[in-house]
Structure formats: structure tokens, C-alpha cells
Amino acid sequence: MIQETLVTTQNSAGLAHIAPMGVHLHDDGFIIMPFRPSTTLDNLLANPVAVLNYCDDVRVFAGCLTGRRDWPLLAAEKINAPVLTCALAHTETEVVRVEDDAIRPKLFCKAVHTGNHAPFKGFNRAQFAVLEAAILVSRLPMLPMAKIESELAYLRIGFEKTAGEREREAWGWLMDAIGAFKNGEGR
Ligand SMILES: Cc1cc2nc3c(=O)[nH]c(=O)nc-3n(C[C@H](O)[C@H](O)[C@H](O)COP(=O)(O)O)c2cc1C
Fold it and tell me: Which of 36, 120, 126, 187 is the most buried (most CB within 10 A)?
């Protein structure tokens, strides 16, 4: 199973980094799999700890993909990495093994602490739509525009029926990024 989390790491100078990552559940641990090049990978090799933030504010996912990476952070309990203040829950992890790869290394992690902060309030189709649209934005240079547009047309159905303010703001950032890419402005 893969859980869509926000992975927070810190470099050796203490600078925090936030990245949406699909974390693989493996035995009783986790595998983080960043595609090279990756700041998350660089940070994990320099400072082998990460926080997995379980967060329903999809603006953070969409924000990280559209140049909005400045989200409020707190210190973790047991490791030297930050926690997102908007996390409903978080798990602090340590890297126990690295399986190197030219394209996508695997960082095997074990949990050292979990904190619960706010209740999970149920599934929401607009949040799912924003996550899927954020993945499309992360693959803009690799996917044909016709496929992106047909997937967005489907995602928009559930989005329009169920979105709240946060989801609409996140969706708007992603649509702006797609529009800029189409106009040749990149991201
Ligand atoms: C829901 C979601 C899941 C993602 N999962 C991964 C992943 O597992 N590995 C990865 O390299 N990038 C993933 N991405 C894309 C990265 O978040 C994005 O490209 C990131 O900026 C690159 O990594 P870096 O910030 O560590 O340099 C994902 C994006 C989204 C929206």
C-alpha cells in the first residue's frame, strides 16, 4: 500500500524541506522513494531522518508543486526534522537502509514516534481530485496534454460537487500551473 504523505526533512545546515511523496508501507516500516534529482533524497542522505505528515489540507500538496513551500512547521519530538503544524497526525522516522538506484533509490525507514493532533473527518472527493491533479502537474513534461485534459475533465466532476475553500484554492494554483505550462512559461 502507498500512502500519500508530506515528507519533511532537514539539511545539514538546518534548512527544512517539504515534499509530497507516496510512501510505501513495508513490513512494519516505510519506504520513501524519491526520483533523482531530489532535495528530499539529498537531505535524507545528509541527515537520515524524516517526518511523514498525514495532512488533509491539500493546499500543501498543491502548493509544493507550484512554488508555495513555506508552510508553518514545529520541531519533532524525537528527531531533528520539522513537523507540519497542519498535520492531523505524523510519524517520525529514521532511515535504516538505503537501496541505491540511478533513477529512484529506496530509503527504508522505521518509526520512532507517532503523534496524533486532530481527528480524521472522512474522505472527500475534491481532496482526491487535487492530489491527482498535483500528480499530473508533477508530470507535465512527460504526459501528452490531451491525456492531462481528459483526466482533469473527469476529476473536475467530483471536485465541483464536493470542494470547500481550501480545495478550490489548491485547484486554482494547479490549473494556473497547467495554463502557464501550456503557454510555454514552464512552472
Ligand atoms: C501525491 C504526490 C505523490 C508524489 N510522490 C512522489 C514520490 O514518491 N517520489 C518522488 O520523487 N516524487 C513524488 N511526487 C512529486 C514530488 O513531490 C515533487 O516532484 C518534488 O518536488 C520532488 O522532490 P524534492 O522536493 O525532494 O526535490 C509526488 C507528488 C504528489 C503530488
Answer: 126
